[in-house]
Design goal:
By secondary structure, the chain is an alpha+beta fold. It has 2 domains: 184 residues, 3-Layer(aba) Sandwich (D-Maltodextrin-Binding Protein, domain 2), CATH 3.40.190; 252 residues, Dipeptide-binding Protein, Domain 3 (Dipeptide-binding Protein, domain 3). Helix content is 27%, strand content 20%. It contains 17 helices and 26 strands. It has a 5-stranded antiparallel sheet with strand order 1-6-7-9-8. Helix 15 runs antiparallel to helix 16. It starts with a helix and ends with a strand. The N terminus is likely disordered.
Length: 615
């Protein structure tokens, strides 16, 4: 073969090898219009709108409502730091959507899939199969409300700002990010730390707000403020009155209004939240037409208070909207940082004293069911004996776990509903005595004679009708239990600082949980101020099972690890499980319309309903 022929052959072989390498790189990298936890996107790249919207819904009108009645007042419009109390709407609840009314995100979650996001500011994402990094390519037309473009610099700036100064409850996902690189004006890359579980990380970070670098270069981020921030979403903050109401105004020329993820959504010109300190006053205001839609949180009120003329003549409608997502983990959480709650036998005794069946018939008007576990209503709920997959995760820790974990999962006691729970109280007293407590002069005391006392507080007395009978049972055990009303800011502060004995909380569950479980159950977050590990759980087995959930590469693996975790948590008796409802109790003036399809994982009220006045 001549030298020239050999050179030609070498060049051809080299070109072939380079082409094969490029093809291999391409095969190992995914470029897509969305991201799913396990790769199963419902909507194709050319989808026009979500299935649960009316793409032709008219724009206009007002939705005025009470939100969830969780806010009495506010003193800040910065929802991403610990300081201050913010109004509802700045950060949406999981049942109303994700993100915020006023801030855009790189991608947005669909409400009819367990965990999938699709392009908003970013039109596509690229990532390797091990998800060790992700690149977001952004739409050049995306801009803030003042017309300035949303750039990769803003995305990186937001990451740096939140990781250094953000509320710890919101930035758990950011802790596993090694670096953020600006690859171009509209291209940003997140690099994840080696060895961390990255299944949900690209999804989590894609739903963080994007803050304006230019705006915050002249405004202080770390202090609470009522100065309206520069935002970018479908709404901006409008008029407001502290302690009374706030309005979010639709942005008519919102840059993303016609994107597939937004078509048919965000239809009201104004979304207004009304705040009331007293729920009776709130209901009377609704009856008088001072606002249009109410989410009723009280079973008693729903059963007794919704018989009035506007209901009878059809001007006001009652509707229970199905909730197809996992059951929220509602319960009376016990602060194990307090010495009286350190022993799991004591915590179980407190569960034995709660007579749910009596409360269901006499207080709840038979509307609720008892919550039995932390992941009820999902494939992570423990049932029956452990499966082989669960045992494979639990066996290495057998010496560290109570034997009960390897049998049927713990469930709260069931009573006959008559209010006579003497057998439960006898069992509870025996557990307390095993834990070192004794009765002296009618009071339960420890070895040093210190009485067993606990305080329950809330910002109104609506839960006292439940805790009152419960605490009467505790008094029969010699425990001094008191109810106390405190103001809402003090309530928030004491929860954030774990300054409580027992507290009622309703913590939502995600269809595909991930890193947020570390914040809720992880040992490293037990003393993290403003974190959600309210019970103060410190258990290396729990930590290992949380890591297994986060690292799972299939839904089956995740579910098995979740069931194992559910067993361990239930055996730890960190709470007195409460109750749940599979619907949202809603009443509204007959002024609204909505699509035929209700999304499984959200109510859809804020973003898919529309005003009849606009038709």
């Amino acid at each position: 073969m001549s030298p020239s022929a050999m050179r030609c052959l070498a060049i051809c072989l080299g070109t072939l090898l380079l082409g094969q390498a490029a093809a291999q790189d391409a095969a190992d990298t995914i470029v897509a219009h969305g991201i799913s936890s396990f790769g199963d996107l419902k909507y194709p790249a050319n989808f026009e709108h979500f299935d649960y919207v009316n793409p032709d819904a008219p724009k206009g009108g007002v939705l005025s409502h009470n939100g969830y009645g969780n806010t009495e007042t506010f003193d800040s419009f910065n929802a991403y730091i610990i300081k201050g109390d913010v109004p509802e709407g700045l950060v949406l609840t999981s049942s109303d959507g994700t993100g915020s009314l006023i801030y855009d995100t790189l991608m947005v979650a669909s409400a009819d899939e367990p965990t999938s996001v699709y392009g908003l500011v970013a039109y596509e994402a690229e990532y390797p199969r091990d998800r060790s990094w992700v690149v977001f390519r952004m739409r050049p037309e995306a801009h803030f409300h003042d017309g300035t473009p949303i750039t990769a610099e803003d995305v990186k700036f937001t990451f740096d700002l939140l990781r250094e100064h953000g509320d710890p409850r919101l930035i758990v996902a950011l802790l596993d990010i090694e670096s953020v690189e600006v690859l171009g004006t509209h291209e940003v890359r997140y690099n994840f730390k080696p060895g961390v579980a990255t299944r949900n990380l690209p999804i989590d970070i894609s739903q963080f707000p994007i803050l304006s670098k230019a705006w915050y270069s002249t405004h202080e981020f770390t202090e609470s403020s009522l100065e309206k921030p520069l935002s970018s979403g479908p709404y901006r903050i409008g008029e407001y009155r502290q302690g009374s109401w706030i309005e979010y105004e639709r942005v008519p020329d919102y840059w993303g209004r016609d994107l597939p993820v937004n078509r048919g959504r965000w239809n009201f010109d104004v979304i207004r939240y009304e705040f009331y300190r007293d729920r009776t006053v709130q209901l009377e205001a609704f009856k008088a037409g001072e606002f249009q839609l109410i989410v009723e949180m009280s079973a008693k009120s729903w059963a007794l208070d919704y018989e009035f003329p506007a209901i009878a003549d059809g001007r006001v409608l009652k509707r229970e909207i199905p909730d197809g997502g996992p059951v929220t983990a509602q319960g009376f959480y016990l602060n194990t940082r307090r010495p009286q709650f350190a022993d799991p036998r004591v915590r179980r005794a407190l569960d034995l004293a709660f007579d749910f069946e009596w409360a269901k018939g006499n207080i709840f008007y038979n509307q609720y069911e008892r919550t039995t576990g932390y992941f009820m209503g999902s494939d992570m709920e423990a049932k029956g004996l452990p499966t082989p997959a669960e045992l494979a995760l639990l066996e290495p820790f057998r010496d560290q776990l109570p034997p009960d974990v390897f049998g049927e999962p713990y469930s709260p006691p069931v009573t006959d509903g008559t209010g006579n729970i003497r057998s439960n109280l006898r069992e509870a007293l025996a557990l307390l005595q095993e834990a070192g407590w004794r009765i002296a002069d009618g009071r339960l005391v420890d070895a040093e004679g210190n009485p067993f006392e606990l305080e329950y507080f809330d910002y109104d007395d609506s839960t006292f009708r439940i805790t009152g009978p419960y605490f009467q049972n505790l008094e029969l055990l010699g425990i001094t239990a008191t109810n106390r009303i405190i103001d809402a800011p003090q309530y928030e502060r004491r929860i954030k600082e774990f300054d409580f004995d027992i507290v009622s909380l309703n913590l939502p569950n995600l269809p595909t949980p991930g890193i947020e479980l570390r914040d809720r159950f992880g040992s490293s977050y037990a003393d993290s101020v403003a974190g959600w590990n309210v019970a103060g759980i410190r258990d290396p087995v729990v930590d290992a099972l949380v890591d297994a959930i986060i690292a799972a590469q299939s839904r089956e693996e995740m579910a098995a690890a979740g069931r194992a975790l559910d067993r361990v948590l239930r055996a730890g008796h960190y709470w007195v499980p409460a109750w749940h409802l599979s619907t949202y109790r809603t009443a509204y003036w007959d002024a609204f319309a909505w699509p035929e399809t209700i999304p499984q994982y959200q109510r859809g009220v804020l973003d898919t309903w529309w005003s009849k006045s606009a038709e």
